[in-house]
Design a protein that fits this description.
Layout (H helix, E strand, L loop, with lengths): L30 H21 L4 E3 L10 H4 L2 E14 L4 E14 L5 H9 L4 E7 L1 H5 L3 E2 L5 H21 L4 E5 L7 H16 L5 E6 L6 H7 L8 H10 L5 E4 L18 E7 L9 H11 L8 E5 L8 H22 L1
Parallel strand pairs: 1-4, 3-5, 4-6, 6-7, 7-8, 8-9, 9-10
Antiparallel strand pairs: 2-3
Helix pairs in contact: 5-6, 6-8, 9-10
Length: about 350
């Protein structure tokens, strides 16, 4: 099938599970009740994605509060009570973050059982997202390793352990989320790609890296306003990514100032083309989505194009996110009829 739609990652938490329309929501339940509620929420979103025509579905990150910290909660070597003030994404926002104080070690599987549960309940392709090693290092303070690259390699080993178990549980696509790649471009080329490949080593399933300009929150929107008439960060990193072993690249295209011609720098990769703007509550039309696909077709073969969202939709309302999913699925179908 041409133009198999998928999503970049997160979807809103239902109001009975957690606070709504927040990037860092608090759970409303605990213990076994919370575990079951997470599974119920994942099932609802799998069903809604299928109904919308999404061909490669996700749990919508219903099992974690935040795409980075939610994964790291059980990793040994992190002191969650020792907070360090740090500028994230090159000081785009200043927050108090947990501190790495010792050797990092995964204490147990994080999402293996949850992925297996989702696998049992969909016949569609199943994607699971994990935070990439560079982005993890840009979200924690280092009080142990001394070099960010060394800490990234340690996290890459932890991610690889997790990814191999997710693959064994039936996950078809494992995606590493690396928004930091759009900020620290020199580091990407020096050690970021190496860490990413280390996280994915040995995997036989489809691997992907997601690189966007961030959630639709105020700090990211204000940052975008400083980037000028064209956003060309991708230009500095796509050649190295194209030479990597990662199979898919997820990028931001809808309502952005990214010249879509930059995807020509990825001739050997499948392209997850962002056709849905997650920084707006306006619902795209199928024609709008198909139009983004039409533009991508000027620079890439149809067989390599997967319509996608720009980023996660966790901060949006459930109704808006569901409507955007339907627009994505309908737009992909329209493009398929037009070009298939």
């Amino acid at each position: 099938m041409l133009f198999r739609p998928t999503i970049a990652g997160s979807l809103p938490k239902p109001g009975w599970l957690a606070e709504t329309e927040k990037l860092w929501p608090k759970w409303k339940l605990e213990g076994p009740d919370l575990d079951q509620a997470k599974r119920d929420a994942a099932l609802i979103w799998i069903k809604l994605q299928e109904d919308a025509g999404i061909e490669i579905v996700s749990d919508g990150e219903q099992f974690r509060t935040h795409f980075v910290h939610g994964f790291l909660e059980t990793v040994e070597g992190i002191d969650w009570d020792l907070k360090t003030k740090m500028g994230i994404r090159n000081n785009r926002y200043i927050v108090d973050v947990p501190t790495v104080t010792g050797p990092l070690k995964r204490s147990r599987p994080v999402h293996r059982d949850e992925a297996a549960y989702c696998r049992e309940h969909t016949k569609k392709g199943l994607k699971w997202t994990l935070p990439g090693p560079m982005t993890i290092c840009d979200t924690l303070a280092d009080g142990h390793y001394g070099k960010r690259a060394d800490m990234a390699m340690a996290f890459a080993d932890i991610l690889n352990e997790e990814a191999r178990e997710l693959e064994a549980a039936g996950v078809d696509t494992i995606q590493f989320d690396e928004p930091a790649f759009n900020v620290f471009m020199d580091d990407v080329n020096e050690w970021g790609i190496e860490a990413l490949e280390r996280a994915a080593r040995g995997l036989k399933c489809t691997t992907a890296v997601h690189i966007c300009y961030g959630y639709g929150i105020d700090a990211n929107i204000k940052w975008k306003e400083t980037l000028g008439s064209e956003w060309r960060q991708y230009e500095a990193i796509f050649p190295a990514i194209n030479a990597s072993a990662i199979r898919q690249v997820s990028l931001e295209c809808a309502n952005s100032r990214v010249p879509i011609s930059l995807i020509s720098l990825l001739p050997d990769k499948d392209l997850l083309i962002g056709c849905i703007d997650v920084a707006s509550t306006e619902i795209e039309t199928p024609e709008t989505v198909a139009g983004v696909i039409d533009e991508a077709l000027k620079h890439a073969d149809a067989e390599r194009i997967y319509p996608c969202t720009n980023c996660g939709m966790a901060p949006l309302s459930r109704d808006v996110a569901a409507a955007k999913l339907h627009a994505l699925g309908a737009g992909a179908a329209l493009a398929r009829a037009r070009h298939g």
